[in-house]
């Protein structure tokens, strides 16, 4: 749901309340992004979700590299009673959220129509009057779609579906279907909307657990993690973007991925930071062919150079590369074993002093490089932005005025202690490390800086 509120200190300009879902461990990256890209305030997080307030328009929301932006509301109290109260006593928040959602739907329809019209005009060989007629027909169809979409003043034709998730002890007391039914009936009674489980116009997302309840409306039909410019998916695009965002990429830099696979990291980096010299390398012909297909699909053939070579024999002068970003392969298909040290030595050699390396490491690789007995690490590091103004963690949703608290100093101290334990590899000093989820397994995004000449 949307909570319209003013920007702190402004007193006039109102902002809407949103939340984004994030893969486990990616919350700090998302918090930094919404602050930088959307000028977000009141940034808070819980596991897997980041809440924020922004006055940015919907086109800016589309540029987020995270997953699902949702119009959001956080409610607290007895579950069913609180949900019903939100519907019956605060209908304005629902209508406001739907108004924002409707505006985006209109924008999407208009953009789709423009693309279809442009394509059809290009292919059309008829006379100009026929093209004009087609343009008029498209405009008429567009207006009809808008009228059929969502009318917040006349909502008799509005259909909806409730998608509910329960976790914690709540899951033992109620099923998601039971909760969805209760909420759905309350919505139908109060607003007169019709339920449609197969093809609804409106999706209502609800997540209940032991300490909070979240209600939201998806802003986009397709997750932002589904990149239209990636033909063949390799590494998760959200992970790839997070790695690139850590690398301190500047215009004119030389960025290398010596084990590029299908090129997802380079694609994400080149889309965000275009004025950079990118080189991708791999020993596999099939991987390089897949990368080339992705580059063509994204229109980046002239932005990224591809080479076939081994990561332990890079044909590059020492200290010639500004930034190295790479997913160190692991899993059943890839077993590097002790080669990880040889790989790091060669990366260290070609990286110039002050340069940055960002690696995605398996838990096993991480243990080898850190000499730590334990593979666990708090998801934040010392350079996380959670200690900046306006970024908080939702620690106790039961508190009305103190629903958010800044991350504790003891939490930050644990990260300092962990980084102190990390054994530097040659001239590479650890800067940040984040444990992230890859679905069935976990991995670490680790950032290193080269402190001095390695002499290799």
UniProtKB/TrEMBL annotation:
Highest rank taxon of the organism: Eukaryota
InterPro entries: RlmKL-like_Mtase (IPR000241), SAM-dependent_MTases_sf (IPR029063), THUMP_dom (IPR004114)
Gene3D superfamilies according to UniProt: 3.30.2130.30, Vaccinia Virus protein VP39
Catalytic activity: guanosine in U6 snRNA + S-adenosyl-L-methionine = N(2)-methylguanosine in U6 snRNA + S-adenosyl-L-homocysteine + H(+)
Classification via PANTHER family: THUMP DOMAIN-CONTAINING, THUMP DOMAIN-CONTAINING PROTEIN 2
Protein role: Catalytic subunit of the THUMPD2-TRM112 methyltransferase complex, that specifically mediates the S-adenosyl-L-methionine-dependent N(2)-methylation of guanosine nucleotides, most probably at position 72 (m2G72), in the U6snRNA of the major spliceosome. This modification in the U6 snRNA affects the constitutive splicing efficiency of introns that have suboptimal splice sites and can impact final mRNA levels.
Subunit record text: Part of the heterodimeric THUMPD2-TRM112 methyltransferase complex; this complex forms an active tRNA methyltransferase, where TRMT112 acts as an activator of the catalytic subunit THUMPD2.
Name recorded for this polypeptide: U6 snRNA (guanine-N(2))-methyltransferase THUMPD2
Taxonomic classification: Eukaryota, Metazoa, Chordata, Craniata, Vertebrata
């Amino acid at each position: 749901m949307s909570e319209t509120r003013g920007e702190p200190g402004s007193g006039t300009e109102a902002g809407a309340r949103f939340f984004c879902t994030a893969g486990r461990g990616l919350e700090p990256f998302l918090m930094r992004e919404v602050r930088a890209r959307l000028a977000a305030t009141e940034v808070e997080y819980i596991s897997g979700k980041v809440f924020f307030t922004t006055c940015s328009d919907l086109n800016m929301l589309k540029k987020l590299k995270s997953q699902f932006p949702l119009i959001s509301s956080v409610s607290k109290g007895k579950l069913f009673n609180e949900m019903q109260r939100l519907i019956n006593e605060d209908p304005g928040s629902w209508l406001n959220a739907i108004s924002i959602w409707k505006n985006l739907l209109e924008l999407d329809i208009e953009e789709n129509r423009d693309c279809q019209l442009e394509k059809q005009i290009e292919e059309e060989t008829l006379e100009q009057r026929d093209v004009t007629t087609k343009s008029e027909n498209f405009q008429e169809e567009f207006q009809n779609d808008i009228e059929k979409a969502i009318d917040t003043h006349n909502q008799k034709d509005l259909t909806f579906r409730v998608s509910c998730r329960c976790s914690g002890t709540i899951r033992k007391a109620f099923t998601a279907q039971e909760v969805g039914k209760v909420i759905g009936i309350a919505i139908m009674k109060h607003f007169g909307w019709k339920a449609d489980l197969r093809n609804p116009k409106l999706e209502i997302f609800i997540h209940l657990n032991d300490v909070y309840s979240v209600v939201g409306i998806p802003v986009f039909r397709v997750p932002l993690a589904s990149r239209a410019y990636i033909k063949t998916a390799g590494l998760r695009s959200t992970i790839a973007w997070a790695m690139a965002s850590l690398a301190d990429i500047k215009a004119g830099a030389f960025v290398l991925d010596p084990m590029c696979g299908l090129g997802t990291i380079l694609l994400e980096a080149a889309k965000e930071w275009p004025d950079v010299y990118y080189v991708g390398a791999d020993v596999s012909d099939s991987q390089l062919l897949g990368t080339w297909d992705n580059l063509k699909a994204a229109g980046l053939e002239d932005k990224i150079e591809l080479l076939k070579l081994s990561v332990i024999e890079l044909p590059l002068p020492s200290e010639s590369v500004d930034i190295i970003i790479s997913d160190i392969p692991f899993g059943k298909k890839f077993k590097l074993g002790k080669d990880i040290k040889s790989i790091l030595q060669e990366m260290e050699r070609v990286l110039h002093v002050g340069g940055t390396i960002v690696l995605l490491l398996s838990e096993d690789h991480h243990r080898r490089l850190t000499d730590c007995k334990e593979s666990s690490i708090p998801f934040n590091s010392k350079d996380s932005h959670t200690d900046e103004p306006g970024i908080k963690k939702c620690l106790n949703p039961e508190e009305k005025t103190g629903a958010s608290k800044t991350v504790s100093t003891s939490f930050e101290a644990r990260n300092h202690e962990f980084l102190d334990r990390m054994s530097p590899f040659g001239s590479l000093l650890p800067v940040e490390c984040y444990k992230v989820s890859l679905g069935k397994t976990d991995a670490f995004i680790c950032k290193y800086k080269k402190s001095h000449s390695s002499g290799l």
